[in-house]
């Protein structure tokens, strides 16, 4: 699985924590997908880390909620791309 990282926020990310979390998610997705759709070796996911203002804007646009939430998920329509997980770094840290 290919994992893309996008970090326009000014926050420094805890690299070891994120690597461990990504490994866990990849194993879990592979386990779940293997039962139904085959292996995930050729799939891709994007993790986006942003600040409060940007996350609030996305949450308002897509969920009609006027606050920054910890995570937003955007599903893909293609099998080879799982989609995006958008994290609001300050909310996750809090």
Kindly describe this structure:
There is one protein chain. By secondary structure, the chain is of the alpha/beta class. 41% of the residues lie in helices and 27% in strands. It contains 3 helices and 4 strands. It has a 4-stranded mixed beta sheet. The longest helix has 22 residues, at 15-36. The termini are far apart.
Task: Note the main attributes of this structure.
about 90 residues, alpha/beta
Brief description of this entry?
This protein has 94 residues and is an alpha/beta fold.
- Which strand order spans the largest sheet, edge to edge or round the barrel? 1-2-4-3
Which outline best applies? globular
* Distance linking N and C termini: 29 Å
H/E series, N to C? EHEHEEH
Category by helix and strand content: alpha/beta
Instruction: Count the DSSP helices.
Output: 3
Q: What Rg, in angstroms, do the CA atoms define?
A: 14 Å
Query: Hey, roughly how much beta strand do the residues contain?
Result: 25-35%
List low-confidence stretches.
Answer: none
How confident is the prediction overall: mean pLDDT? 82
Percent range of helical residues: 40-55%
Number of separate strands:
4
Biggest sheet overview: 4 strands, mixed
């Amino acid at each position: 699985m290919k994992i893309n990282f996008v970090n326009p926020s000014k926050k420094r990310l805890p690299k070891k924590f994120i690597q461990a979390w990504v490994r866990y998610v990849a194993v879990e997705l592979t386990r779940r997908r293997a039962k139904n759709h085959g292996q995930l070796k050729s799939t891709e996911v994007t993790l986006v880390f942003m600040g409060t203002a940007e996350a609030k804007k996305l949450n308002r646009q897509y969920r009609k909620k006027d606050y920054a939430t910890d995570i937003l998920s955007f599903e893909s329509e293609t099998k080879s791309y799982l989609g995006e997980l958008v994290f609001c770094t300050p909310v996750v840290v809090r």
